Amino acid sequence: DLLLDLYEPVRRSNGRRPLVVLIHGGGFSGGSRQSDDMVTIAEALAARGIVVASIDYRLSPQDPEPSPRVAAAAAQVPTTVPVFNGMVAAIDDTLTALDWLLDHARDLRIHRNRIGLVGSSAGAITADHVAYASDDLGIDAPRIRFVGDLWGGMFIPLDFPAAARQLDRREAALFAVHGADDPTVPVFLDDLLVAEARREGVPVEYHRVAGAGHGSRATGFFTREVAPGQTAFDRMLDFAER
User: Fold this and answer.
1) How far apart are alpha carbons 122 and 6 in whole angstroms?
2) In sequence order, which residues have a C-beta less than 8 Å from that of residue 68 and are 6 or more positions away?
3) Each residue of 160-210: pLDDT tens digit?
């Protein structure tokens, strides 16, 4: 069984509301939808009038079996390697969560055409693939309006420039943060993705943090000003709302 935590805006609205699906990190082997970072992001987005679903997904130690839906993604990586098997399962389960949310869009008052994805580390990698690679791989997925990519990038297929080139014109706007000295997820993955977004004319905002490592503390995501009076976290909230 997979669970999600639903955060709804306190501000009353009679209309359909935008949705962000929040995907936690943890190297595809751990992590939690209820981590402090995920809760902070979810509550802040909900305060902006956005419905947030912070989701579970199967992890590599559970030896997940990808569904036929993501067979094309599985064929591009060695799923005998646990991290790649977990990566494909996370894509699979994010799509399943989106299916469930859209099946209940009327009851949840979700606007079907205003969907964003925000992920951290493994969650960012997952968000990137759902938004930018699904159509190239023949995987049915809803249209995503924006991606909040926190120290992520594209791995599928295992040709990194080719993976980034799956981002096409008119696909999701991209907000990215990455430490320039990240020892866990190489910064060049987001460099490639951001360069492709700019080449394709996709709206993009990139905070490449000099000397920083991996994660919210190392990059100062919640604490370091990247613009007068604003952190990268503040900037992402503005980007999501736009």
Assistant:
1) 21
2) none
3) 999 999 999 999 999 999 999 999 999 999 999 999 999 999 999 999 999
Distances (CA, A) of 87 to 28, 44, 111, 125: 6, 27, 28, 8
> pLDDT digit string (tens) for 22-61?
999 999 999 999 999 999 999 999 999 999 999 999 999 9
Six token digits for residue 107 = 């009851």
Spatial CA neighbour of 181 closest among 153, 159, 210: 210
Cα–Cα distance, 218 to 207 (Å, whole number): 13
99: three-class secondary structure by DSSP: helix
Q: Specify the DSSP class assigned to residue 166.
A: T
Dist CA 146 CA 7 (whole Å): 19
Residue 232 and residue 128: Cα distance in Å, rounded? Answer: 19
Scan for tokens 């951001």, then name that residue: 194
C-alpha distances in angstroms, 222 versus 34, 41, 117, 150? Answer: 17, 10, 19, 12
Q: Quick one: how far is CA 138 from the chain centroid?
A: 19
3-state secondary structure (DSSP) of residue 114 = strand
HSE-up (13 A, CA, CB side) for residue 188: 5
CA–CA distance, 38 with 53 (Å, rounded to integer) = 10
Query: Which has the closest alpha carbon to 22: 51, 54, 62?
Result: 54
pLDDT in tens, 111-152: 999 999 999 999 999 999 999 999 999 999 999 999 999 999
Sign of CA dihedral 202, 207, 210, 211: negative
